[in-house]
Specification:
Helix content: 25-40%
Distance between the termini: 28 Å
Number of strands: 12
Strand content: 15-25%
Length: 379
């Protein structure tokens, strides 16, 4: 399959088509199809039928999961990265560095690639990262450790997405710059992500963690993991023909989505989550091979929002700890609080979910009705 993006190949999108931005991409299935389509009419009819019946459901915790990893090699690797990104007086800083990293947050996404990204203050050049990687056995050794950690934890049924349609080349291990935040002191490693959604994921987790700490000072990364799995934003999508370009004899398809969101989710987090969804849905549609050869996908999602009475539940430390035990999750350290659980613990406002590998993915059932045109927002 060949991708022709207007942003990269403007000469293939004549002005007579009257396209107003760069979000238009043509799907070709062979090199010959760029000049004259050689696909059979039966195949084109089949693809058009698939487009008309296409549906895609999305929830954050179905496609991304958060693990707490205490592997010493990974922790020491991030200590080295922290050292390399510190002040100019590195030897003095190393001798005074008393806070050892005991755990890292690993966010695992749905993509097949093995590009790794981690948080860093400030950004590190690839040469500096290479020094740290070689010190701890090389990139293949680090990837093997990460793969082992994922295999121990990742749900068996987790969906996967095709390679990102944007297909931007990246270093196999890189850092991204962050400002001061609640997660600054503990590194986050992103794996199996496209790379484009990492900033939105980071900022969403950072804001969520600060909210958890505000509600309960004892909240830790297990609490964050539990809260991320209970994120209430669900999306139901389908494809529509947005327009027909007479001059090009092409249909323009667009992803149209109904978004259910908790009424107490703020605008920033809503937009962060929608941004992640947009990348996922775009890759899902583009990689599935259902767009008819020569037709166009408009990659800006049209979203209709509905707030529901479902409230975001911010768990406290004790609740998240009990939940992790019910998951039979690996916790090496004992609870930070007393060994007993207070009888005055907050009530759990929604049922605990079973382990994903033993559960069946439930169909999407929106808790809303009467989608109206007045609620429609173009993003």
């Amino acid at each position: 399959m060949l991708s022709v993006f207007r942003e990269r190949y403007p000469e293939l999108f004549p002005e007579s088509w009257k396209l107003n931005n760069s979000s238009y991409n043509i799907k070709y299935y062979t090199e010959e199809c760029k000049t004259k389509c050689v696909c059979s009419e039966e195949e084109q009819v089949r693809r058009r039928s698939l487009c008309s019946s296409f549906h895609f459901n999305w929830k954050l915790d179905d496609y991304y999961d958060l693990f707490i990893v205490k592997n010493r090699v990974l922790c020491e690797l991030f200590e080295e990265i922290s050292y390399l990104s510190s002040s100019n007086d590195k030897e003095k800083n190393r001798s005074q560095q008393c806070d050892k990293i005991k755990e890292i947050i690993m966010v695992c996404g749905p993509y097949p690639n093995e590009i790794l990204q981690c948080s860093s203050v400030p950004y590190l050049a690839s040469a500096q990262i290479g020094i740290a990687i070689r010190k701890f056995g090389g990139l293949d050794h680090i990837k093997n450790i990460i793969s082992t950690e994922i295999r121990k934890r990742k749900p068996k049924y987790s969906p996967t997405l095709p390679k990102s349609m944007l297909n931007q080349s990246r270093e196999p291990f890189s850092t991204f710059n962050i400002v001061y935040s609640g997660l600054k002191r503990t590194p986050i490693l992103f794996t199996n992500c496209s790379g484009y959604e990492v900033a939105s994921l980071y900022h969403y987790l950072d804001d969520l963690y600060m909210e958890l700490k505000w509600n309960d000072k004892s909240a830790d990364f297990q609490t964050l993991r539990y809260a991320m799995r209970k994120t209430y934003l669900q999306v139901e999508s389908h494809l529509e023909i947005q327009s027909y370009i007479e001059a090009a004899k092409k249909n323009v398809y667009q992803i149209v989505s109904n978004v259910c969101v908790s009424e107490n989710m703020d605008m920033m987090n809503r937009d962060m989550l929608l941004n992640i969804f947009e990348y996922n849905s775009m890759d899902f549609v583009w990689g599935s091979g259902i767009i008819p050869c020569g037709d166009i996908l408009y990659t800006d999602v049209e979203a209709t929002w509905k707030k529901t009475s479902e409230q975001i539940h911010y768990p406290n430390y004790e609740e998240a700890y009990i939940y992790s035990k019910l998951l039979d999750y690996d916790i090496d350290d004992p609870p930070k609080k007393d060994s007993y659980m207070s009888l005055k613990s907050n009530t759990v406002t929604s049922g605990l979910r079973k382990r994903k590998e033993h559960s069946v993915q439930e169909p999407f059932v929106p808790n809303v009705c009467n989608w109206t045109h007045n609620d429609k927002v173009s993003t």
